[in-house]
Amino acid sequence: MTGRRRRREGGQALVEFAFILPVTLVLLVALIDIGRVVWASDAVANAAAEAARFAAVHGGSPGQACPVGPANETVSIPNPNLCGYPVSPSTQAVVLRAKARALSAGGTIAVTVCYFRKGDSPCSGDTSTTTNAPGNRVKVAVTAHLGLVVTALLGGRTWDVASQSTLVIDY
């Protein structure tokens, strides 16, 4: 009788394991996905801050050798080959800086850069309302579109992590 009981208990443990294993694996993958979202959130926030700082430091004062963003009338535009990155009137250098900093977030990275005056409502998207002159503001928004495992298993779409940074152009 003891041999039969052991076989039944072994079968019962196997059935319990079969019920618990999928739940445990989904929880483990969900925990990893949460970690990826936190990591991406940090990377995106740092990318927005770094790109906004880059845009503010490389603004449009007459002494700026390699300005970025929409040029104002006091800035002379240098040869782009001298700077190592796209210069005014392009915001491409700011976008490239943000994307380089946000690479560790994973997924698809989207960046928007816009310039606006103090007192104006902040612009949205890539629609600048002013130039890169000192005293104006620059806003950089970075979004990472993450493909998470749990949302894919549940038939969902990508998870978006976004951050933005606004700074005053001082140079």
Structure description:
The chain is α+β, with helices and mostly antiparallel strands. It has four helices and three strands, in the order αααββαβ. The protein has a three-stranded antiparallel β-sheet, covered by helices on one side. Helix 1 packs antiparallel against helix 3 (92-101). The protein starts with a helix and ends with a strand. The mean pLDDT is 83.
Jot down its keywords:
single chain; 171 residues; alpha+beta; three-stranded antiparallel β-sheet; 4 helices; 44% helix
Relative strand content: 15-25%
The biggest beta sheet is recorded as: 3 strands, antiparallel
Rg over alpha carbons: 25 Å
Integer average pLDDT: 83
For the terminal residues, how far apart are their CA atoms?
A: 88 Å
Pattern of helices and strands: HHHEEHE
Biggest sheet, strands in spatial order? Answer: 1-2-3
| Beta strands, count | 3
Short description:
44% of the residues lie in helices and 17% in strands. It has four helices and three strands; from the N terminus they run αααββαβ. The longest helix is centred in the N-terminal third of the chain and has 56 residues, at 2-57.
